[in-house]
Specification:
The structure holds 2 protein chains of 2 kinds. Chain A is an alpha+beta fold. Chain A contains 2 helices and 5 strands. In chain A, a hairpin with a 2-residue loop joins strand 3 and strand 4. In chain B, the strands form 3 sheets. In chain B, strands 4-5-13-10-11-12 form a 6-stranded mixed β-sheet, with helices on both faces. A 4-stranded parallel β-sheet of chain B has the order 8-7-6-9. In chain B, strands 2-1-3 form a 3-stranded antiparallel β-sheet. In chain B, 56% of the residues are buried. Classes of the chains: A alpha+beta, B alpha/beta.
Chain lengths: 91, 412
């Protein structure tokens, strides 16, 4: 049982440069816990002091923004793809 | 030229040298271009600006290029129209339309941002450029990239209007439709930009690109004899234009170029079918809850607006407000502007007009105050939004014509 987390360039300083990290499925919050255990400092870079996701970072589970799901409580499953993507502008 | 000091994170204040960078590497906050305003003050005066040809480049010291531009030279300098007939219809005595529907080269205000972005891509010697787009940005990136001789990759939502597809593809761009909405396209674009060494105008060129929108504000003030209007109504997609045009007005004040203090109230306009920013303002918040867009105003259909937080804060702080309009109201807005001023705008302009009507009804816009309405795109790109008009058909005989209009004589 595993899923893939896609790490954007600015966060690869925590993952020794790894772009993909494989982890056990769980809620997004649990995934962030596991990333923090493996790469200390990781969570503080994407979450604020209250534990919420920072304003300019988005997390997608299988292509869907977790704000349309259950935020950090969103479940994941075997084979899920989690993307951590900085917010960008456009038009 | 060359008054750029670097890039500064709007959230944490971290400073970066001016390089290709999407956002702050510490907190992911957006980056603002930081200028040497003292240096600019020494060279830029109202007289110097007035002496230059009418285009966005007359404010070049306040744009983040190190060299003179080589493409998009005719962008900006669009008319500020005193809209008397529209004003009578709306109940405003002192209203102007800033008409970027006639922007060069691609008929939307996006020519201002890509003008900066593509010239910056040339300065960075990038081998290709790209963007995620709801259409207008696609047109403009494609045109300016073609003029620069740089290949472009353009990602659009699959359901985009045919006109905006044709008016992008014609420039020889690699046009890729993505199954999903604009926010899906944008996410993919961000991930591509993270892996490929290209310049994505709305990702890693964003800090520079966004600066082009300031010229919308510069021109309004200059055309009003260096005064900022009492109120501006601006359509919002990602929320960048409203913030940047205000930044532009603020810079003019900072440089001593305005003749009266800056007290402009900013009003943001969205479609009700995609209103994450105006919904936040109405809730008394700046925190954006993303939405799934469902509106004819596809150029504004960004459900997850990156600059929405700042746009919402600015509207409230400036004493303005955010309001939204239904698809029917948007179409009525397009007709009203066309029939009163002879200006055919796209759906985003219909949003501006429709929201203006509501703001007047709510007492937020005042009859005698100097109000500017931002018209950012051209109606020829969104013909699908307007019900097909069937002409009256007659035989080629004078009698047939006169029978139709109920006029004149008994000729055969």
């Amino acid at each position: 049982m595993s899923l893939k987390v896609i790490i954007p360039t600015p966060l690869r300083r925590f993952t020794s440069g790894a772009e993909l990290v494989e982890l056990e499925p769980g809620t997004v919050r649990e995934i962030l816990d596991r990333l923090e255990t493996r790469y200390p400092g990781f969570r503080a870079s994407v979450c604020d002091e209250s534990g919420s996701l920072k304003r300019f970072i988005n997390i997608y589970v299988d292509g869907e923004d977790i704000r349309f799901l259950d935020n950090l409580g969103t479940p994941t499953k075997d084979g899920s793809e989690i993307a951590i993507v900085p917010a960008i502008s456009g038009g | 030229m060359g008054f750029v000091k670097g890039l500064r994170c709007r959230e944490c204040g971290r400073i970066y040298p001016a390089r290709l960078l999407a956002g702050c590497e510490d907190c992911f906050g957006p980056l603002e271009v930081d200028y040497n305003y003292e240096g600019i003050k020494g060279v830029l005066s109202r007289e110097v600006i007035a002496s230059r040809p009418r285009s966005m480049w007359k404010y070049q010291e306040l744009l983040p290029l190190d060299n003179p531009p080589v493409v998009g030279l005719s962008s900006g300098g669009t008319p500020l129209v005193r809209a008397r007939r529209l004003g009578r219809a709306l109940g405003l005595d002192n209203v102007y339309v800033k008409n970027d529907s006639v922007s060069s080269p691609t008929l939307s205000f996006k020519d201002r941002v890509t003008g900066v972005a593509i010239n910056k891509a040339i300065e960075f010697k990038l081998e290709a450029v790209g963007c995620a787009s709801t259409g207008n940005l696609a047109n403009s990136v494609a045109a300016n990239a073609a003029a620069a001789g740089i290949p472009s990759f353009i990602l659009i939502p699959e359901n985009l209007e045919q006109a905006k597809i044709t008016t992008t593809a014609v420039f020889g761009s690699r046009l890729i439709a993505v199954r999903g909405n604009y926010d899906d396209v944008n996410r993919l674009c961000s991930q591509i930009a993270d892996r490929h060494p290209w310049g994505f105008v709305n990702v890693n060129l964003r800090p520079y690109y966004a600066e082009g929108s300031k010229t919308f504000g510069f021109e309004i003030a200059e055309d009003l004899d260096w005064r900022a209007p009492a109120a501006i109504v601006v359509p919002m997609a990602g929320g960048s234009l409203i913030s940047k045009l205000y930044k532009g007005l603020h810079e003019l004040e900072q440089l001593g170029l305005l003749k009266a203090p800056l007290h402009t109230r900013l009003y943001g306009a969205q479609a009700t079918g995609c209103n994450p920013i105006t919904a936040a303002v109405k809730k008394g918040s700046a925190e954006i809850q993303p939405v799934k867009p469902n509106t004819i105003a596809k150029s504004l259909a960004i459900g997850n607006p990156a600059d929405g937080y700042y746009a919402a804060r600015l509207m409230v702080k400036s004493g303005g407000w955010g309001e939204d309009a239904s698809d029917e109201e948007i179409v009525a807005g397009i007709h009203l502007l066309a029939e009163t001023e002879g200006i055919f705008t796209e759906t985003a302009g219909g949003v501006t007009i429709a929201v203006t009507k509501k703001l007047i009804a709510q007492g937020r816009l005042k009859r005698d105050e100097l109000t500017v309405l931002a018209i950012t795109g051209n109606g020829l790109k969104t013909l699908d939004a307007i019900p097909v008009a069937r002409p009256e058909v007659i035989e080629p005989r004078l009698a047939a014509f006169e029978a139709l209009i109920g006029g004149k004589s008994n000729v055969a």
